[in-house]
Amino acid sequence: MESLNFQNFKCDQLGYVYKDIEKAAQSMKNHLGISNFIIFPPTPHKMIYKGKPSRMIGKLAVANLFNLQIELIQCVEGACVYKDFIEQGNEGLHHIRFGCDDLSIIIEKMKEEGYEVLQQGRIVTISYAYFDTIKDFGIIIEFASIKRRGKGKKK
Length: 155
Known about the structure:
With 155 residues, this protein is α+β, with helices and mostly antiparallel strands. It is built from four helices and eight strands. It has a single domain, classed as 2,3-Dihydroxybiphenyl 1,2-Dioxygenase, domain 1.
């Protein structure tokens, strides 16, 4: 199978992980002028984390900056890549997301390139997978397939 060409995908999100997303959203508003965050209450999510079923409760905040979505994530409870990030002493930029049509093909190609899936799941209409690309790129890469309601396929 042919390897992935990232120029064929649109980077559509920067994902940040914090211990407190309200504080982070306020800081981004004060220092960067990003003032349109929508903050969602803690919500449970099922996923596959490091190959095993898992469940986390997380808080999310999203805003748009030009053509990018800014996503702030706070793990309230459960095993997941976000908790790992915080436990390693990190806060801030966690992943970049690329949109795709068929996530299963991306997973197969990324595995062929030597990148394992750290976490994958589905949130409403978004199927996603995070890949362990830190060694090569210094950041986690996410691919997501977004199914549009009533319009068939995704973006």
